[in-house]
Structure prediction request, 336 residues.
Amino acid sequence: MTVRIGLIGAGGMGRAHVERIQTELAGGEVVAVADVNPDAAVYAESIGARYFPTGPELIADPGVDAVIIATFGKAHAPDVIAAIKAGKPVLCEKPLATTAQDCLDILAAEQEAGRKLVTVGFMRRFDKGYNEMRAQLTEGQHGYATMVHCRHRNPSVPATLYTTRNMIDDTAIHEIDICRFLLDEEITTVRVDTPRRSSNAPQGLQDPLVLVATTASGVRIDDEINVNIKFGYAIECELVMESGTVRLADQDHTILRDIEGDRHAICRSHIDRFHDAFNAEVQQWIRAVERGEHTGSTAWDGYAATCVVDAALESLKNQGREVAVQMIEQPAFYVG
Ligand code: ISE
Prediction:
């Protein structure tokens, strides 16, 4: 069976997913594209897909089996809920939604539907390095985790449209999710420190930031968010256990040596850095849709990450005060 996929949001991320489905993955075909920008009709035609101006129209098309949402975060919730109501599996890019209440509405709709239909696009869960780190911890040879040190560095971000809030809800949200995944527990408190501002930062952006969080068992996480560092897209993570540490290695396979010394290339974007993880995520999702199963992170993971984001934003507003993360108790539907 070929899964007939509808894409909502034909920007860079959406088109990268189309490209991988068309050229690298098996079992899926993009048959429809929705985007508020009517120029996307030309793009839809170029890939042989039908065009719809809105998400709900695409979701209602009986020729669409499953949906990928790659619009900006604020627009996600209504489309995710429409897909759930239509009984169609949905892979929604992060964040699941930008408010905890929108996430709660999604959780309620999914529980009413009685089966897990929502996968949140936390692609790092499919990255080989993070999975090896997680295995080191669960094997238990080096004891339990005490700290996680993360760095999230981007060459630049758009000078307009990207705000200090986005440094947390669009960027740090990856470390928030991956630390929950690595440690298999919730984050309970968070504070945001504001170091000296980089002159590379566009006006008004408080860049860099450091997010400091604590989990239920007391593991301390620090995350440097530094989004105009120029030299490349550089993601680092070190997990500290009682008697060993494990960290992500560089992704490159070669080192060039010449008169200028040793060097390796540093990639420029998340689409390159996590290319294999994105492929694994979308391939596994297509296979799960075929079998009527769920894969990847759940709507609960999307909700939990948004609750941590909310606490971090509260801290930012209050001069870096430590803020407790407010969450509902995990419904039985999502346990396990
Ligand atoms: C972007 O949306 C991503 O998901 C990237 O992984 C992140 O590095 C970037 O800061 C975000 O804007």
